[in-house]
Amino acid sequence: MDFISNSNLTKLLNSLKRDYKVYVPVKKGEQRFYKRYIDPSDDIVIGEVRPFEPLKAFFMKARERVADGFKPDVPGADAKPFAIVGVKACDLKGLKVQDHVFLDNDYNDPFYAKLREENLIIATDCTTAIDTCFCLALGVSPYPKENFDINLSQVDGGFIVETGSKKGEDVVNKNANIFQDARKELVSERDNLREQVSKQVQDNIKNNNVPNENAFEGIVKKNFQANIWEDEAKACVECGACNTVCPTCHCFLLYDQKDNDKMARLRIWDSCMIKDFARVAGGANPRPYLWERLRNRFDKKFDFFPKVAGFYACTGCGRCISACPGKIDIRKVLGKLVKNAS
Amino acid sequence: MHHNKNNPYRPVEAEVIEVIAETPTIKTIRFKPKEPIGFKTGQFVEITIPGVGEAPFTPSSKPHVTEYMEISVMKVGKVTEKIHELKKGDIIGVRGPFGTGYPLDDFKGKEVLVVGGGCGFAPIRSLMYSLFERSSEFKQLFFRGGCKTPKELVYKDETKEWAKREDLNLKLTVDKGEKGWKGNVGLVTTILDGLGMDYKESIAVVCGPPIMMKFATLKLLDLGFKESNIYLSMEKNMSCGIGKCGHCRIGTYYACKDGPVFTYDKIKAFANIWD
Lengths: 342, 275
Fold this sequence. Notes:
Chain A is built from 11 helices and 11 strands.
């Protein structure tokens, strides 16, 4: 295992700028955001917890051009890829869901596939948990185990480095002079930290009575006629924030720019909580009521995805809990569903 | 296969070559794509009106003809309104074909009953062309079509020709008759009895407005059709066409890539399939 010192990590980031648009997490107040890396600054926090925005934004942008009129060339094909630093384990599970949709299917999405191939993911262990974190309930540990190119685990004076792909190995080999062998005591320090943060998440789960995913099978279908949906939807204001911040939500709208001379097709993140999401031109709407759309959101994550992909489309990142103006708490909804189904 | 693996969201340019007014609310648009696009009957395409948007339609023309394609469109929304304004020479976009289509090979050796309603006639015309072409492979073809009034009956001249065919048993009905209409009056579900076919072993294909599909399905089940022999063309909000955008989900399926044609047994357990 390798080690990189704090100052050498700065060197690495500077060298990555040549081939990538480098993004790092920065802290502002109590929130963390991804910001384009230009020079070292004090607000950069590689560890801590997941930033406000989900990782999916680097692979399917919130708004992007997918066609220029009838022209055969793919828009944005020559853009520089991203190197995203400080990616947390919950977001890597989100990427697994996005991969299932955009890659592992009958049709490849060329835009996603290109970014997935070219972007560099430098993940990192969480060094703390916030009260909305419940990743372990979804089988995700607060330190990355898969789906990264390089993973950094913060220890005294720097980071333990692991590679998870050929792309990651190439980056390390190319910059071999700034990596050292990791000392044994630093590896134990990492293991202790991992255990501590896991304990924090476990305490969160216990304090909030969050059920484990082992109990999720059939909870949506068994509760299909339950009052839970109507009760929970009462506080929903149909803003779609839960969809926007969710690392697994993938739905989008194809939208044609209203310009006769320059016809451009845009792809914009969409929300299944919005009334017209499934409405057809003839007027029929399979989910006219808000509570039906809330149920549908859970159906997609906890019934559709396990059936078609073999995993639940939730990462336990807790972003939807923080983002919801109606204070709808996915942990409580899951708790009610599990309790009512057993 | 999709015409453009390179970018599935890009429409292919197409020129409108003819516009036919079928009824006061339905027009058929014949267009020529600049890159040849074939389709299997039951598959759909996405039509772009430049500067307005895109909407899904099932072609109503002959599947093997690649020089042109036709869609028959009822005016219901902002895209269809613009489609009704199209003139010869106008440029539109077309993407597709998408979906799986009707599995005609599975119909071999059987009696096939096709039930169509209103603008649901459109995809069914392309199906009838395909069935006629392979007519000898099927035991007997039945067609039962309905719409609100005689005025709203599409493909009037063509259905008159179809009525003369020996391989087809055809009957049309309207919900409400008017002067000069000599045919049946009543819902399409009222002309499905006593066809003299072996309902238990036969194939039924249903396409039409959701409410008609629902009651036709219930009627067919009553008559003894197997759930797995009733083919339904589901109208959902198909947009990307490739199972990514999420709008047309029916249970564990996406209508755009797994359908839009489903047998009843596959989808009956899911919520709100008729809405």
